[in-house]
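Case study 2.
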Amino acid sequence: MALLTRNQTNTMNRRQFLKTVPVPPLVALLAANGLLAISLRAADNASTRFIDTPSGQDWLVPWQKNIIAEADSARYCDHEMGEDLGWLVSPFLNGFYYGLLATGDPQWIARLVDWAGACIQRAVLEPDGFSGWPKLGTGGLSEETFYTDSLLGEAMLLRPVVLLAGHILKTPALTAQWGAQAREYLKLGERTFEKWDTRGCWRTVKNGGVWVVPDFGVDRLTGQWSAGYAKRHTTGFSHPANKQNAIARWLLALHDTTGKVIYRERAEAWFRLMKSRLRPAGDGKYYVWNYWDPAGPWDYLPDGKTRHWVGVHPNGGYYAIDVEGITAASEHGLVFTSEDINRLIATNRDYMWNQQLNNAQFQRIDGGRPDPRWANTPGVLWTSLVPYDNTLRTIFLANHIPTSWGGLVITPWFLSLPHG
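Prediction:
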């Protein structure tokens, strides 16, 4: 098996993604696909969407210029591997997908297909017959010794790909041109799930289930599995909550597009465990939870200590990802209720927010002191709750930057929502 050693150039630390930092405008390229002169709308049954408002139109043009320029300049799809498929490639794929939902412009299909294809063609065949995007530094205890895949990276990469496939296959005007491609995307999504399942990375635990990072990889010298492969069903390291939630959202996308119950069941099992870890605070008005908690014996060292510290993470961006998962679960009728959503709204709006509309700031979810590493983001606006609360929506409208890094996805997602 030929495994490529790569110098990871033009990479961005994943924590920068969570800070929603601005991205400089760059050069534009890829022409729109003119073969489909059709108008697709994400919410044809909605009388008005935000994109149809004056503010929405003001956001659309700069967002479009920015994502095209940045995508054509960075081309992360041509070289990123492992977990960076999630943090660096998926923002563009999601931006293209939601750009399609917001505008109906088929150029976003062409762009997503281009980026997805660039990644898929670089997949490497591994010893168990599955393909992946392995690199050094994304595994467990032996991460610097072996080439390892990243479940998180692949889940984040494939979620918009799977969602696009579903959109194509339920839209006759698109199926004629893109149907075969869409079916291949679904096969890849299902095959990827099968890969991680057979590698022993899913664990059923009390109150639910978790995904673990495996303690094995492909040996750099032999091209075969390391010795840890034989113990793959009992060893590993549980992903933290934000990664579990990102993976669960991919599983929900697989269920939505294939209808297969297994994907919904796995997502639901994680959401049950996630809910069991939420702790009421402020006389029951708010929620607080840890970044990581041990889930099984694999999460402990021989001396009984946990393999990771337990507590609230000082980077507020991780909690925004958790709330995305919780919101998605609630929207799918899984585990979380409107009461949970209202408590999360209260946490973000009444406890974390500084009550200033302009230059709004948010404190840590537990009220702790900011960490110098994330001095500007001890807490952030939980954007996925914006559709559910007028105050959070007002904060969002007053502070959102359409051309920011986070705006690559958030801008078209919000443009596609019903207005009023």
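Strands lie at 124-125, 131-132, 146-147, 202-205, 208-213, 218-219, 237-238, 279-281, 286-288.
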